[in-house]
Amino acid sequence: MFVRLTAAIAALSLLSSAAMAQAAKPTDPQIAHIAYTAGAIDIDAAKQALDLIKKLKLTPEDNDASKTLSKQAADKLAELNKLKGAEYDRAYVANEVAYHKAVNGALETLLIPSATNPELKSLLQTGLKIFQGHQQHAEHVAASLK
Predict the structure, then answer these.
(1) Are 145 and 93 in contact (CB under 8 A)?
(2) Can you give the CATH number for the domain in which 70 is found?
(3) What are the distances in angstroms from CA 9 to CA 5, 36, 75, 95?
(4) How many domains does the structure of the chain reveal?
């Protein structure tokens, strides 16, 4: 469920407010396809990053930060799986806001300044812009759930 909701939020963040206002209310099959499309876009972006890693002949190295991210994600997923309904929605969106704030902070203060390869730095800067948009959308959704 976590992945589906992440994809749905990503899909919604791709749509501008004007486009959403003009569109007819989507049906469940259309919503499912939007979520699928958002997931596919995320996968394509990940493939682009992996292609760059190969091009630069980098071997990703596990580290304390990546281990911490993985553990926190697993812990949060376990926590969210215990919740239902509106309680789940609020906790999920609060986590999305916190997650995007943390990633954006790491990109701005550590990852982008530390990257020495111009192509990698550029990819991270693009990722920051995307994640800032996701954070804004998550904050908007969170405010609507109060």
Answers:
(1) yes
(2) 1.20.1260
(3) 6, 11, 20, 12
(4) 1
DSSP 56: T
Q: At which residue do the structure tokens 């609020």 appear?
A: 90
Domain holding 7, by residue range, is: 2-144
99 SS3 class: helix
DSSP 41-71: HHHHHHHHHHHHHHHTT------HHHHHHHH
Distance, CA of 109 to chain centre: 19
pLDDT-derived band at 79 (thresholds 50, 70, 90) equals very high
* pLDDT the model gives residue 22: 52
Within 10 angstroms of residue 46's Cβ, the number of other Cβ atoms is 10
